[in-house]
Every structure is written in structure tokens, then in C-alpha cells.
Amino acid sequence: MQDKNGNIRQENTDTRRAELIAATLRVIARDGVRGATVREISKEADVTQGLIRYYFKTKDELIAAAYETYMGDLVRMADEASRGKATATKRLADFIRVSLEAPVTSHASVAIWAGFFETLLHDSAMTASHNRSYDRLRLHLKQLIADVQSENGCPTDEATLRRYSIAGNAILDGLWLEGGALPEAFKPGELVKVGLESIGALLGIDLETAT
Q1: Is the CB of residue 58 less than 8 Å from the CB of residue 75?
Q2: 113: number of Cβ within 10 Å
Q3: Other C-beta atoms within 10 Å of 171: how many?
Q4: Beta-ladder partners of 2
Q5: pLDDT of 184 strictly over 80
Q6: CA distance from start to end of the chain
Q7: What is the pLDDT of residues 118-140, one digit of tens each?
Q8: Is the pLDDT of residue 105 over 60?
Q9: What is d(CA 108, CA 181) in angstroms, rounded to the nearest whole number?
Q10: Nearest partner of 111 among 27, 18, 175, 28, judged by Cα
Q11: Predicted pLDDT at 199
Q12: Per-residue pLDDT for 182 more than 50?
């Protein structure tokens, strides 16, 4: 849809970009990043290749946007499940729980991430996208931890909160990766229990009883 000056309206632009990103993720899930050519993405989205190039200057720009969107959606799913809880401790515990359960932790989820990873260390746009995704998750976790520390009478300085958020993020990342890649290696609820125990030990707080 266009305005009287022939410009594509912003809401239409955002919707179209989101549709192209969704189509890109479907192709990557099926064929990997190497198989996600502009041609294949255009077929999946049922649009012309020229339309894709209108919204994204290069394929690399589209792939980076898809990666950032995908990782952001994983954080959002975990965040939404923890909102509105009675206490900060329960919010953090629920964030950990949802982060380590399906659909956030799943073989399909890790498979898509692995498809991106082959380009992550060799492409500047992907590296920048990964940095933004990492910062979003770490800073969100940092705020959850700060709220828990304050709630439990242990207000914490910025340097310590930074260390806690880096360590907590590493714990979640490791469990997410192993749990998604090898789901049959873990008993039901085992990843969540390990996550709650590990981050609880880091903070000196019992998170298991808060779930």
C-alpha cells in the first residue's frame, strides 16, 4: 500500500520484511544457510527476487536479519512466560525453565542455529547480528538477576551483575545447545533442574522451590 507520494507505508514495509524473514527461516530449516538462495527464498515466499532485493540490499543482510529475529524470538518466548509472576525469584526461575524446555530448547531450534553458525564467524553482518542478540539476552538476564538480588536483600554492584549475567548466559547456552542437539541424552526435566541448580548456586539463592 502506498501514500499519495507513492511511498510504501511503514506498516506494510514491516509486514513484508517479516514475511520475507519467515520464509528465509523456513528455507534455512529445510536446506541450511547455503541452500537459502534468493531464488529459493523467493519461491518459498511466492514473491519475485526483485522484491526481496528491494527490502534487503544483499542476501547477507537478509540472512543476518533472519538470525537476529530468530534468536530474539527465542528470548521473547522465555520472557513472556515469566512476566507477571508474583516475585522476581519466580520470574527468573520461570525464565530458566522455559529457556530449557521445548520449543525454545529443541532439535529443530538448534538445527536452525547450527545452520547460521557456519557463517557466523566469517561474515561481518552476521557477527554484528550475533553481538546484538547476545547483548539482548545477557542484558535481560542481568535485569532479572538484579531484581532477584534486590528482592532477597542482596543489592549487587554493576561489575558483579555483569559477571553473573555472563556466567548465567553461558550456563543456559550450554544446556540449550546440548539439550537440543542430544535430547535423548537427558531425562524429562533434567535440563531445567540443572539450570536452576547451577544459576541458583551462582547467585546463592534457591531457585528450585520458586518454580
Answers
A1: no
A2: 19
A3: 20
A4: 8
A5: yes
A6: 47
A7: 788 778 888 888 899 999 999 99
A8: yes
A9: 9
A10: 28
A11: 98
A12: yes
